[in-house]
Fold:
Amino acid sequence: MKLFNQGGLAGSAISYAGLIEKIEILRSTLRWASRLERAEIEKLLKQATTLRDEVMQLSHKERFVQAAVAETAPADLAPRERRQALLERSFIFEGTFGDNPKLLEALEIAEKAAPTDLPVLIDGESGTGKELMAKVIHANGSRTDKPYISVNCGAIPENLIESELFGHKKGAFTGASADRRGKFESAHTGTIFLDEIGELPLTGQVKLLRVLESHEIQRVGSDETISVDTRIVAATNRDLRRLSDEGRFREDLFYRLSVIHVTLPPLRERRDEIGLLVAYFGDEAAGALKRRPVKLTPRLRDFLMNYAYPGNIRELRNLMYRISCLAGDTADLEHLPQDLRPKSAAPAMAAGGSPPGGADASTAASLSEAKRAASDEAERAFLERGLLEVGGTVAELARRFDMNRSHLQMLLKKHGIHSKDFRNQGTAQGGKAR
Ligand SMILES: Nc1ncnc2c1ncn2[C@@H]1O[C@H](COP(=O)(O)OP(=O)(O)O)[C@@H](O)[C@H]1O
Ligand SMILES: [Mg+2]
Structure:
């Protein structure tokens, strides 16, 4: 199933995507021009006229293909039937999904986008499944046997981004002791997943834009151009439109990356899927921990069904792994992280002993000691909870709470918390390290 004529991206055939690209190039030229000569105005006018003619000529065939694709999932089908239809079309999704219309819509878009080479932008809060979705798009496309290369743009120091993405020539900078190929070259014929694209510095954005335009790269320090055929899937938990209004993300790059735009809803907007996910991760954790799936007391189930999950699916998954690891046959509220436990669970907790580290406000000898102990407890719970939500990435935690990273590191050290323990929790079953 093809959504658009893929040749359109190269600019030869007329396609919806090709036209959007041309319009963006035109807009970009106008946006970045400080002044224009009459001759240039004439040239741009001519381009605009051609574009208008091309829009009018969009072939019957193209319209037919688009209409046929639209028919595969008529929006007026009931969610249950839409879900069933997705499954019957042998759509590969390595996770679980129910009847939530918002998620179904995202999956249907991903399904249509997968067999094309169009760039896809996935947005959504941290832990909503963006990376999983990128893999799904790759797995359902024609490049599935080819490389899938993931790059976290937020985790690479600014001065190394370019070399990381495009490679470098020996001697290009201090430390470049040999020629090295970048991620784009490694992803040739396959897919590159650019995670946290909103963190890419402006200089990197310009370079990326050039790759999207020319399908060519240059290693740092080299004049040679290398053709790359790489499908781009990008993800962000930031509002790129707002970043571009603020001048921090190039608008033309945003439009080029988001030819197909998929938004993953936060878990609080698909609460009807929580029960399904609890069961799914209960089984998954049991498999990973080689144990029987944990049973849940009614009050714990009730809690899990009603909790807000600021860390979305990642948080739910981590909770299920934690519960499955700590509980015997049956899990109860006491197996939740301390700061999540509802007040009513307090007596059960007291029997469980004081928190690690020994600080316990209830047995303190003086008021000031009690205050300090309570404050330490709160601090520790806050850090653990935060790390769970962000999958153990200290930089992300620092950004989320607008805290200084080295101060955070110091607090973690004080409490003997290792951020990588939380990373492992999020990837306990063969997932990619984040
Ligand atoms: N629908 C789903 N079914 C099963 N697991 C899911 C689903 N969505 C997300 N996950 C899991 O939740 C965790 C977080 O997902 P991830 O793709 O890393 O989120 P993001 O990139 O948005 O932060 C991963 O372990 C992922 O496999
Ligand atoms: Mg992610």
Notes: The chain has four domains: 1-72, 78-265, 269-353, 372-434. Residues 128 and 310 are 10 Å apart (CA to CA). Residues 269-353 form a domain with the Helicase, Ruva Protein; domain 3 fold (CATH 1.10.8.60). The chain has 19 helices and eleven strands.
